[in-house]
Amino acid sequence: MTLSPLDSKTIIEPFRIRSVEPIQFTDMEERKRLLKEARWNPFLLKAEDVLIDLLTDSGTGAMSSRQWSAMIESDESYAGSSSYYKFDSAVRDITGFRHVIPTHQGRAAENILFSLMVSAGQSVIPNNTHFDTTRAHVEHKGGEARDLLIAEGYRPQTDHPFKGNMDTDKLESTIRDVGADRIPVIMLTVTNNSGGGQPVSMANIREVSRIARKYGIPFFLDACRFAENCWFIKTREPGFEHSSPIEIARELFSYADGCTMSAKKDGMSNIGGFLALNDDDMARQCRSLSILTEGFPTYGGMAGYDMEAVAAGLHEALDEGYLRYRIRSTAYLGEKLTDAGIAIIRPTGGHAVYIDAREMLPHIPSLQYPAWSLTNALYLTGGIRAVEIGSVMFGLQPDGTEREAPMELVRLAIPRRVYTQSHIDYLAEVVIHTYRQREHLCGYRITDAPSVLRHFSAELEPLEGDQ
Ligand code: F0G
């Protein structure tokens, strides 16, 4: 009798660790002082004062020895470096898009795309759910960002295998109401980060593509977490169980005209991104703009060694052993919290577990920011840094008014290949302990905030003293 690591109950990390980074233990009194000094905004904490940092899975992953060795061999030529050609061929191998324009990160690709596509006061951009930077870029250029997620996507407790799907009836009615000429691009975010890291099915991607083509509208993917999305397709969508993640990825990209990508996620890199597309004329315009804002089109804001890291990382993200471990370990955390009675977005997403703070803290109204309150409580209780995805992040409207966000979530984003199962066990203990004290948590008010992407630098204070 043999027991394969694939069948065992214990999730083993499919790597061993050769370089370690110490983390700091602080006590509750210290953390209270530190958070107060950070104006009750975890973004303003020093990372060294955080024990387990789940602020984001973006750029925070551990690289492999293969990536590090590729980095040593990088070519730092300004123009035409061999590192660029490796990067270009890795992206084309997976996406099939003809033109690959490197950018320093995902939002830089968004900036280039929307600068060319959005007409102020005219354009409407449909998406399943815009990520905050995506929305901000559309609005900054005077366009309107419309989220057309299926209804199940807004119901945290409802199980559905593809809660990131776009409502294609709403998409067609939006096109008819607004007029196809006012929709320069249709976007689809895979996986849907702001909606819980939920995947989009291949059937939905195909249907969105069909509608886009019917009306002659370009269709772009926000592909940050494409590999995780492919794993969900493989394990949840009939007909894909025998396909490899790379085969699924190739099919997924084949339905689109281009994509924006933050390589800080499924590029397994600490920095980097790209814009990839098929249209020759559009690519020419994107390259010109990239020279203005990012750099020469064969490095686009990245060092040669960054492009090497991404070229290797994109394929590592599609490795079956890695994806099985990645998605299983996020689900493991989700199961621990669910078993303790904590409401999370179900099923568990790819890169993160999202706690439903509206459900956990019904005594805190949305505009007193329950998800922010819970985020701070997790830091105070156990040195965990998470991120609010609620009314601080999304409540401020372009006209300056405030409206409650559709959901009040706390995202526990898991960096790639960084934490082990014992870190996750500790994390679950902290969340469960906080949950048991939940009636003592209070609301917050914003004392100072910028008008764009305010959550990054807003200053707040608890409504009942120091929590
Ligand atoms: N699109 C999605 C779906 C994202 O999740 C992000 C970043 C971006 C675009 C922008 O990419 O950061 O490289 O400029 N998400 C990070 C997060 C910041 O924490 O979820 P970027």
TrEMBL record:
Record GO biological process: aromatic amino acid metabolic process
Residue span(s) of domain Aromatic amino acid beta-eliminating lyase/threonine aldolase: 53-429
GO molecular function terms attached to this record: carbon-carbon lyase activity
Domain of life of the organism encoding this protein: Bacteria
Key word RNA-binding present: no
InterPro entries for this protein: ArAA_b-elim_lyase/Thr_aldolase, Beta-eliminating_lyase, PyrdxlP-dep_Trfase, PyrdxlP-dep_Trfase_major, PyrdxlP-dep_Trfase_small
Pfam families according to UniProt: Beta_elim_lyase (PF01212)
CDD domains in UniProt: Tnase_like
Cofactor(s) in the UniProt record: pyridoxal 5'-phosphate
Keywords: Lyase, Pyridoxal phosphate
N6-(pyridoxal phosphate)lysine PTM positions: 265
Family to which the UniProt record says this protein belongs: Belongs to the beta-eliminating lyase family.
The protein, known as: Tryptophanase
Organism of this sequence: Natronogracilivirga saccharolytica
